[in-house]
From TrEMBL:
Ranges of residues in domain Pyrrolo-quinoline quinone repeat: 108-265
Membrane listed as a keyword: no
Stored PANTHER family: CELL SURFACE PROTEIN (PTHR34512), OUTER MEMBRANE PROTEIN ASSEMBLY FACTOR BAMB (PTHR34512:SF30)
Matching Gene3D superfamilies: 2.40.10.480, YVTN repeat-like/Quinoprotein amine dehydrogenase (2.130.10.10)
A Pfam match: PQQ_2
The keyword Transferase is annotated on this UniProt entry: no
Source domain of life: Bacteria
Signal peptide: 1-19
Keywords, comma-separated and alphabetical: Signal
InterPro entries from the UniProt entry: PQQ_rpt_dom, Quinoprotein_ADH-like_sf, WD40/YVTN_repeat-like_dom_sf
Name this protein carries in UniProt: Outer membrane biogenesis protein BamB
Length: 454
C-alpha cells in the first residue's frame, strides 16, 4: 500500500471514529453554533487560565479554525510590506480604495490540536492583490470546510484549493476577481455536501453560486445571481421535505436544488448589506440581515417544503411558508443563535436581544453588555450559556434563558473578529495573531452535563 493511500485511509478512519468531535465549517457541522456539552469546556478563562496552548499564526486571516480529528486548519495572508492595520468598531464608509501594497503570500496552516505545534504549512499563492478589501477584513476572510477526507480552502477573490489532510495540494480552481460593493472584497465561506463544494460570489459585475466536484475540482454547475451586496455563507438545509441550499440576498432570499436550480425565493426587503448566514433549528430555517443604517432589519423563520415565490409585496405574515417574521431583530455582522427555545441576537454596538425561537415573540429587548464592546464574531453556546466575543477580545458569558444575566467576562486583550470553534472539550479562539486552545484541565469526565436551556 502506498503512502498517499495509507494516509487517506487513516484520515477517513480518524474522522469516522471522532466525527462528533470535528468542526467542519463556519459555525460547526450543523451551522448552528451550538456545541455539545462537555466537562472540559470552561466558563472562565484568561490569557493563561484554562489555556492548554497558544499558537502564533503569521499574517492576517479571519476564517474560523477547522478541526478534523487531532488536526487544526487555518488560513492567513502575509504581506511583504506594511499595510493598513484593522481596528475595532464600525466603519461607516468606503473600503480601501486600492489593493494592498507589496507581494502577498496566501497560506494554509495545520496545527496539532493537542499541542498547538505546527504540523505543516502550504503557500497556496504568491503575488500582488488585484482587488481592494474592507479595511477591517483580510484577503483570508473565509472559513475553510472539510468532508473529513479533504480540506477545501477558499480565498474568495482568488481561488478554491483542495488539500489532503496531510498537506498535499490535490487541485485548485482560480476565481476571476470582480469589483465588490464599496471595494469590500469577498467573505462568504464555502460548504461541502455529498461530493460538491458550494461557493457563492456576489459582486457588482458577475454574481454566481457554483458547485465544484470535491474529488476533481471540476465545476459541476453554475447559476447566475441577481445580487451585488451579500457576504452570507450558504446553508445546506436537510429537512423533512428534502435537501436544499439556502442563500440570503439583498434582492431575494433564495433556495436552490443540489443541481443549482432555484426552488423558492422572496424579496425580504433585506438591509442593503447582507452578512448573517442562514441556519436551521426547530425544523425551520432562520434568515436575517441588519445593516445598522437601515430601518428594516428583518428576521424570518422559514418552513420546509416551499416552492416558487413564497411572499409577495412584503406581505410576509400572509405567507404559508414564513412561520414568523420580525422587522427589527437582526444584527449587522454576526449570525444569530438558537439555543433551546430562544433566539439570541448580538448587535455590533454591544447589545443583545432574545426572542422565542418558535413564535418570534420578544422575550427581552436590547440589553447592553458591560463593560461595553463592539462585535463581529457570532455567538456560540454550551452548558446552559451563550458566549459572545467582542472585537476587543473580551468574551461575555450569558446565562441562557428568559433573563439577561452576565455570568463572567474573559479577557484576551487582542482584536478578535473570528467566530470561535468548539470540538470535544476544546474551544479555539482566534485573535489577530494567535489561536488559543481553551479547556479545563481539572474537569472530571464524570461530571453531569448541564441542560442546554434553563
Amino acid at each position: 500500500m502506498n503512502r498517499a493511500l495509507l494516509l487517506s485511509l487513516l484520515a477517513v478512519w480518524t474522522t469516522a471514529a471522532s466525527a462528533a468531535d470535528n468542526f467542519t465549517r463556519f459555525r460547526g457541522a450543523d451551522a448552528t453554533g451550538v456545541a455539545d456539552d462537555h466537562p472540559s469546556l470552561p466558563t472562565q478563562w484568561s490569557k493563561t487560565d484554562n489555556v492548554a496552548w497558544v499558537a502564533d499564526v503569521p499574517g492576517q486571516g479571519w476564517g474560523s479554525p477547522i478541526i478534523v480529528g487531532d488536526r487544526v486548519f487555518v488560513t492567513s495572508v502575509l504581506a511583504d510590506e506594511e499595510n493598513l492595520k484593522p481596528q475595532s468598531g464600525l466603519y461607516m464608509g468606503l473600503g480601501v480604495r486600492d489593493p494592498a501594497k507589496g507581494v502577498h503570500h496566501w497560506m494554509v496552516y495545520c496545527f496539532d490540536l493537542n499541542t498547538g505545534e505546527e504540523v505543516w504549512k502550504h503557500e497556496a499563492h504568491t503575488g500582488r492583490p488585484v482587488v481592494p478589501r474592507h479595511p477591517k477584513s483580510s484577503y483570508a476572510a473565509e472559513t475553510p470546510t472539510t468532508d473529513g477526507e479533504r480540506l477545501y480552502v477558499l480565498f474568495g477573490d482568488l481561488g478554491l484549493y483542495c488539500y489532503q489532510l496531510d498537506g498535499e495540494l490535490l487541485w485548485s480552481q482560480m476565481i476571476q476577481p470582480q469589483k465588490t460593493n464599496m471595494d469590500y472584497g469577498a467573505a462568504s465561506s464555502p460548504v461541502v455536501h455529498e461530493g460538491q463544494v458550494i461557493v457563492v460570489y456576489d459582486n457588482e459585475e458577475d454574481s454566481w453560486i457554483a458547485a465544484f466536484d470535491a474529488e476533481t475540482g471540476k465545476q459541476r454547475w453554475r447559476t447566475a445571481r441577481e445580487e451585488k451586496r451579500s457576504w452570507a455563507t450558504p446553508f445546506v438545509w436537510e429537512n423533512n421535505a428534502g435537501t436544499e441550499i439556502v442563500v440570503a440576498g439583498e434582492n431575494a432570499n433564495r433556495s436552490y436544488s443540489l443541481d443549482g436550480k432555484e426552488r423558492w425565493s422572496f424579496n425580504g426587503d433585506m438591509s442593503m448589506l447582507v452578512i448573517p448566514s442562514p441556519f436551521a433549528a426547530h425544523g425551520m430555517c432562520y434568515i436575517s440581515s441588519g445593516y445598522v443604517g437601515d430601518a428594516h432589519r428583518p428576521t424570518f423563520a422559514i418552513l420546509p417544503g416551499a416552492e416558487g415565490e413564497i411572499a409577495v409585496d412584503g406581505k410576509f405574515e400572509d405567507s404559508d411558508w414564513i412561520k414568523w417574521y420580525q422587522p427589527q431583530a437582526s444584527s449587522y455582522n454576526s449570525t444569530q443563535i438558537v439555543y433551546g427555545d430562544y433566539l439570541y441576537t448580538v448587535y455590533d454596538q454591544g447589545f443583545m436581544t432574545c426572542h422565542n425561537a418558535l413564535t418570534g415573540e420578544e422575550v427581552y429587548d436590547k440589553r447592553r453588555f458591560s463593560p461595553k464592546g463592539s462585535f463581529t464574531a457570532s455567538p456560540w453556546a454550551y452548558d446552559g450559556k451563550v458566549f459572545c466575543l467582542s472585537e476587543d477580545g473580551l468574551t461575555y458569558v450569558i446565562k441562557a434563558g428568559p433573563k439577561f444575566e452576565i455570568l463572567a467576562t474573559n479577557p484576551l486583550d487582542e482584536l478578535c473578529i473570528t467566530t470561535p470553534s468548539v470540538a470535544g472539550g476544546k474551544l479555539l479562539i482566534r485573535t489577530l495573531s494567535q489561536i488559543y486552545c481553551v479547556t479545563d484541565p481539572s474537569s472530571s469526565s464524570e461530571r453531569e452535563p448541564a441542560p442546554s436551556e434553563r
